[in-house]
Amino acid sequence: MMNGNEENKSKYKIEFLGEKFSKDLNSYKVIILGRFGVGKTTIINRLMNKKTEGEYAPTLSLDTKNIQIKVNDKIIQIQIWDCCGNDEFALNTPNLFKNASIAILVYAINDKEKSFKELKNWHNMLKQHSYESIIFLIGNKSDLENEREVTLEDVEIFYKNEYDDIKISFETSALNGSNIDKLLENIAITIYENDADNGLKKTITISKEDLTKKKGKKKKFC
To answer: Taking the model in full, what pTM does it have?
Structure first.
């Protein structure tokens, strides 16, 4: 699996500054996509350095979190978007993908038939609406090794033979915190490196109300 910035990690001093927002800083958008139940919200809570106790209720539409990370002497401000794991909702919410600097595709290693196979749909939607986003692939629930359905070979075939635009791929466990620090570091370093080259777009502030409006349709539980 691709380990992202492992070789360059020693060049950076990374400090998590917590849930903060400043109007004086560029804010970079990170969206987390995947089927409901793969652990997206739990991953985000781990990234926010919050305890995870039991399972979280499914995200009904959209939730956002603002965090700051210091990389060397620069503060990186990130807005994380947690999307309902329903592809119909995503299709009817095109602004979800707009100006996403990083898109994280998440599947559960114990669910090949649904969460892993649905990655193709999420990838296609992403490329249709935000083709410039840097893509991470995360296999969550690595603590369920005895229930594994998605092999490392399956993942390698996916990103090498089908979707070679995926920059980083590895596994995490939101339950026990395995590799969550690694994910946060890769997000921060990727933004830091690309920001230096003006290779990432700023987040455009859009209200949640505007994003979740769907004319003639009611919100669905997902």
So the answer is: 0.84
